Every structure is written in structure tokens, then in C-alpha cells.
Amino acid sequence: MTEHDLLDVAIKEARKGLTEGGVPIGSAIMDAQGHIVGKGHNLIFQTKDPTAHAEMCAARTAGIRNDWQSFTLATTLSPCLMCSGLITFYQIPRIIIGDDTTVPGARNTLSRHQISFEILNDPSCIDMLQTWIDENPKKWAVIEGHEHPNN
Amino acid sequence: MTEHDLLDVAIKEARKGLTEGGVPIGSAIMDAQGHIVGKGHNLIFQTKDPTAHAEMCAARTAGIRNDWQSFTLATTLSPCLMCSGLITFYQIPRIIIGDDTTVPGARNTLSRHQISFEILNDPSCIDMLQTWIDENPKKWAVIEGHEHPNN
Locate the CMP/dCMP-type deaminase domain: which residues (chains A, B) (predicted)? Predict the structure, then answer.
């Protein structure tokens, strides 16, 4: 499974979120053998859980592990500081980012922790989220959060 | 409700975790009027959710809000980078830390984001967790995570 294949799994998750009436952001985690070990999508509106970012939901499905350091995580939107904190806490070494134009995310934090990341800026990630934001500005304002430029 | 009262709610949560067979770390959130709006304890072992740190669980019970900026969060253990990321994302301005001797947490991140924090180093927080760690070294190794000194 390539980086693009893994991002495709994350995009499918984002689409699931959209069909559920949520914000379309998805994430997927694969192990060193290319097997999916976790996937999920933003569930903030579906579950009223303010921590339910896509990366968090993907990690939840992966469960308790001691092999995080062999994983790659893909996410359709650049991870915020909370999700980057999750990534550095368990030392997931490699991140595939589908879109860092809508939100820059905490790339400085990933760099500071020697997490390798690739930014693909895939049009389907960008367009899907941007369309949702244009149609749901008030909902987006509630979940957008504060992103410090030095994150 | 004072800082110590709020920390007491967090300590009660930590004790609940202990009775459930989990790691005793608790958290509580109060609003500007001193009402508890969220509380929770670490549920990693109870629910096999690697993101279920006490602060995350407390925020989950608070739900979707637009008034995070008037809250104070107490936690029995200094928050890691993931939980500090949650705090900065929603801009919770004030944190009460029961113990920063067992784990230093991401205090630099809190400072960088102008989050005010008080470190109480309450013996009941420190002793309860340290006793658990001494009795459960293998479990602690699984959930300890990587804490960079510059966090």
C-alpha cells in the first residue's frame, strides 16, 4: 500500500463523515506491512465529542499498542496540535497530509519531534472540505479551534 | 469553588479510575461561575482507547461548547502535549496541575500559548499515581508515551 492508497482510505473515511452529516475529515493508519490498523473520521457533530478529530478516532480503533513506531498515519487535513501531540506521544514516525491549505496544522511541532511528513495537497481533500465549510460556516466556526502559527 | 476544590473533584475522578482497575489520573473543568461542566478520568485500560487521557475524557463530557475561554481545567497529572494541544485548541485559559513531578508534561507549550497554570504538587495526587506505577510498571510503560523535554 502506497502513501496515496493510505490517503485514499482516509478520503473514504472523510466521505463517510459527510454522509453522516459531519465534517468530512478522515484518517487511516497502516503498519510496516501495509495493513490498515486503524481508521476513522471526525465525529464531533455525530457524537458531540469535542476531541473526536479524525486522527484521534483512527487511533482509538487501533487500540492499545506497543508498535506505533512502525506506523504511517494519513489524514485528509493537516493535524492540529492536539492530534500532533497524539502522534508525538506514541511516536508515529511518518504522516501523510492530504491538505495543508485549508488549515496549516502543527507542522512545526511534527518537525521539532523529527516526525517525517509528506504534504500531498490532494484536490479531492481540499475541495470536499472547502465545499463543506462554505456550506456550513457556523458549524466550522464552532470546531475550527485556535491554531497558533508557531504550532 | 477554589482551585483546590476543583483539584479535589479531579482527585475523586482519579480514585474512581483506581477502583475500576485503571491508572489513577483525573481531571475536572469548571466554568466562570464555579460550576463543574466536565469531569473524567483516564480510561485507557478500561476502554482500550489510547487517547482516553483524563483531560480528554473530561472535555468529552463537557461536549460541544463555545465558552471554553471562560473555563478552568484541573488535572491530577501535568498534561502531555496531546492534552495541552486540546487546551490550546479550545483556548482553556487556566490550568491547575496536581503533580508535575511524576511527569513534567508540556508546560512549555502552555506557556507559549499564554495559558496560565498553577502547579500545586498535591501529595495525594503524587502518592496515588506513584504507588500505582510502582505496582504496575509494565502497564505504565505501555501508556507512558514519549515526552520531549521541550514540550
Answer: 1-110
